[in-house]
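fold-stage: in
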Amino acid sequence: MEKTVLIFDDEHIQNNVLKKNLSDLLTGYQFEAYSTASEIDYALENRFCTLVILNIRMDKSGINGIEIINKIFELNPIAHVLLMSPDKEIYDGVLATALKTGKIIDIITKEPETSDTAKFLQPIIVKYYLRLSEDISILNTSLLQNYSDAKNETDPNKKGLLFERFICLFFGFLGYRDIQKRKIDLSRNELDLSIRNETIDPFLNKFGKYILIECKNQPGYHIGKNDFIIFNTKLKNSNGLSELGIIATTGGFAKTTYLEAMRESGNSNKVLFLSNVEFLRLIQSDNKIEEFKKIIDEQHSTP
């Protein structure tokens, strides 16, 4: 179970102390603290998490806490929120809509002493992750809903954005915390997603510093041999920074095109094809990391 928790609070010193105290109390969890408007925007766009601890009142940063909640739910529907408020009663009415989502796990009164706050938050956080680990269907259902939204959308622009969002959620769930969107690689070719390959899994960790992903989700678009050739060139031009690339689609691949592409794949670089069949396998699997590794092995043992 991926246990990455983002902490948003405009009190920079208190925020970092809370991060340290929670890290000391809860080993095996990843806590990250963000305080300024630009830091929080970056984290929401590029960092994956399953829980956000949010100070609802952030006057110093000039950010509206309700807007942050809405953006969390929009960009990461898997994540839940634990709210801290200096005046809990004031915000009960304001949060009425957010509370109806069921994704606010608790609202606590923010204590000035962060060590006390960390000790108070500890059992709430543990209980939340225990519930997720005991019922993996909660996350599987959310992933499947986001995948189906991307697959069934008919508007080309929305379809692409929804699919890219699903890809971010899925790979975040696998343990990849830093997922950059619309980056430029060393050959100056635009890619959809660039994942920092910081996983501790030794099998996946060997594929260079980055995993590059090309999302193909246009209505009626069929992946062809040229898509592979162009993408494989991008991998080669990364100067060894990436040795694994993924072409992802909610559709399928022609078997002949797939076999031709595999024959041309170099030994150092691997291109993985994730289509509708593979995504459904991955979403429904109880051990998604092992299923992902199995798909890599299957595709690159093809003669």
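fold-stage: in (second)
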Amino acid sequence: MSESQEREILTYELFGTAVRDIAQKVVDSGYEPDIVLSIARGGLALGMGLGYALDVKNLSAVNVEFYTGVNERLDVPMMLPPTPAAVDLTGMKVLIADDVADTGKTLEIVHDFCEGHVAEARTAVIFEKPWTVINADYVYKKTDRWIDFPWSSLPPLVDRRGGLAH
């Protein structure tokens, strides 16, 4: 099996198609979000695209990490400050955006954060894996393959641990 058959390859062009497809699903469902809450970093591009496609100007982001320090991994992710104030979201219809629901734990923790504070929270992802603990309301494609995203398929230009990445 060739590498391209083993992976999902998301190009920037296909990403544009995915954004419009997800946005159309949101429109068709009748859901009208007041805010798009992106999970950084992977959900930022989707959140921006959905903001434009759905004419939602209120965009926000939240950082979620599984790591607490060097080589220390948590069983569950935690939201990192600054988090959107729950009081600011009160009564809003929130659309949570991320690139992929793999384990689904990141999406779940943000959804749980919103629950009880907002009028309604729904989730949108480009890809969803079959083993996710939370199924997104809006999905472009379901896959069990490794995914190459256009923004992370090439190595960074800078290595933040020191020097240029080459």
